[in-house]
Amino acid sequence: MQWKRISFLSLTVILLLNLFPFTVFGAEATAESSATGAATIRLYGKDRTATSIAASQQGWTTSETVILNELNNYADAIAATPLAVGLDAPVLLTYGAHLDPRVKEELKRLEAKKVILLGGNGRLSTYLEKELTELNYQWERIGGQDRYETSTLIAAKVPSDTMILVNGDDFPDALSAASYAGSQQIPILLMSNPEFPQSVSDYYQQHRPSQVIVVGGDGVVPDQLLEEQNIPVSQRLGGQDRYESAAKLYEYAQTQNVYDAKQLYLASGQHYPDAMVGTVLAAKNNSALLITKSYTLPESIAPIFSPDKLAAMEVFILGGTGVVSGKIQAELEGKDFIKNLLIGKTVVVDPGHGSPDPGAIGPGGSKEKDNNLAIARYLAVELEAAGAKVVLTRNDDNSPAYAPGTPYTQRGDLQKRVDIANENNADLFISIHNDSWQTAQGTTTFYSSENPSGSPSYKLAQYIQSGLTQEIGTKNLGVKDSRLYVLRNNTMPAVLVEVAFISHPTEEKQLSDNAFREKAAQGISQGVQAYIRYLERV
C-alpha cells in the first residue's frame, strides 16, 4: 500500500470548559455556595499519585505512619481503609518498582516514621523496601498470595465482631463500603465469583463474627456461594446497580447516625483511583463517600443532594473534571452550567480486535485487544464527561461479531463495527489500535479520503493526532490516508488511532500501564473537543 504523508503544524489544545475559578491542581479549592447550593472542594492532581498526595495534604499535617499502595492496584487500598483510619494514616500511591519522588517528599512533609506496604513483592518490589531502609523508615509488609488473602491479613489487624463482604473483582461496591467500614472500624473482606477464596472462608471460620454485612446484589456476591461456605448474611445492602447499592448503604449508615450530614465526598463510580484514595479521608472525617456517573448524578444518588440539603453541605469532589464533570459541580453549587462541547453528539468508540482475534502480540506477551479495550473504556469516561453519548462496539473480551456456534470472519467483524455506528446515528467514529512493525515507535492517526466525510475525517485526525502525541509524548508519525475497512465504509467522520507500537518493548510496557492508557484517552478526548471547537468557528 502506498501511504500519503501529510505534514501539518502542531496545534496547542487548550480546553477551558469545565474548569471553575475555585478549582486548582492538587490543593484545597473552595467555591462559595449559593443560597441553594453546596460549597465544593475539588481534590485532584495530574495523575493518580498526585491525587493521593492532594488527599493526604487535605487531611494530614503530620502522620507517624503512612500506607503505600501500588498505583494500579485498587483492591488492597480499599481493604486497608479501616486499618488506615485506625492508624490515622493516609494512603499514598507509588510505582511498584521504586518510590515516586513526589511520594518521598510527602513522606518528609508528614514526618513519617513507619511505612506499611500493601501487597506482595509483585506489587511493591524489594528494591522499594531497600529505598525505605536507606531513608531510615521502619517498614512492614502486609501481603498475601492474592488480593483476597491480603484482605484477610489486613482484617486480622482490625478486630471487630462484624465483617463486611464485597466483590473484589470489581470495585464500586467496595468503594461505597470503605468509608462506612473505616469510620466504624469494620474489616472489609474481598471475595470472588464463582470461586470463593479459601482464605476468606478460613477467616470467617476462625473469627466467627456475629454480623456479616454484604454490600452488592446477588449478582456480585451470590447467596448460593455464601450458603456453600456456611456464611450467614445479617444484612445485604444491594441495588440494581452500583449506584443504588451505594445509596442503600448510605441510608443504612444514616439510621445509625454514622455520618456527618454536612459533609460528603463524591467520586466516579467508573474511574476508581481517585475514589480509592478518598475513602480514608472520608472515613477519617466520619463522612460518606458516594459514587456518581461522570456527567450525571444517578437517580438513586440525586435525592441525597436535594436542594434543601445542599445549602448546608460541603462536598469534596475527588478527581478532575474528566472523571466528575463540571456540570455536576455546578449542579451541586446551584449554578447554571455552560454546556459542554459534546452535548448532543453520539460518538462510537471502537476497541479494535477482540476474541477470537487477539490482534498484535508484543514481545512480552501482551495482547493488543486488551490494550485497545482499556484505552477505549477510559476514553468513554472522558467523552461522557464532555457531554457525549458514547457507544462502545465491544465492552468485553469478545469481538462484536462473536456469537457461540457462529463462524467468525474478519470481514464480518469489521462490518459489525460499521453497523453499530450506523444503527446509533453516530456523529463520530473512533477506532483504537496498537501498531506493530519490528522496532518502530510512535503514534499515527488514519482517515480515509474514500469516506463520504473524508475531509472532516482528515481534520478530526489532525486534532486527535496533535492532542494525543502532546499528552503521551510519543513520536508524532503524522496523519495518513488509508483504505482501512472501518474508515472507508463509514459515512460519518471516522478515524483509526494507532496509539503506539506494541512490537517495541518500551511502548509495549507503556501500553500495558493504566496511567499511560488514561493519558492516551485524555489526549484523544482533547483532540475531539478541539475538532468540535473548530467546527464552531467555520
TrEMBL record:
<dbReference type="GO" id="GO:0009253">
    <property type="term" value="P:peptidoglycan catabolic process"/>
</dbReference>
<dbReference type="InterPro" id="IPR051922">
    <property type="entry name" value="Bact_Sporulation_Assoc"/>
</dbReference>
<dbReference type="GO" id="GO:0008745">
    <property type="term" value="F:N-acetylmuramoyl-L-alanine amidase activity"/>
</dbReference>
<dbReference type="InterPro" id="IPR007253">
    <property type="entry name" value="Cell_wall-bd_2"/>
</dbReference>
<keyword id="KW-0732">Signal</keyword>
<dbReference type="Pfam" id="PF01520">
    <property type="entry name" value="Amidase_3"/>
</dbReference>
<feature type="signal peptide">
    <location>
        <begin position="1"/>
        <end position="26"/>
    </location>
</feature>
<feature type="domain" description="MurNAc-LAA">
    <location>
        <begin position="418"/>
        <end position="529"/>
    </location>
</feature>
<dbReference type="InterPro" id="IPR002508">
    <property type="entry name" value="MurNAc-LAA_cat"/>
</dbReference>
<protein>
    <recommendedName>
        <fullName>MurNAc-LAA domain-containing protein</fullName>
    </recommendedName>
</protein>
<dbReference type="Pfam" id="PF04122">
    <property type="entry name" value="CW_binding_2"/>
</dbReference>
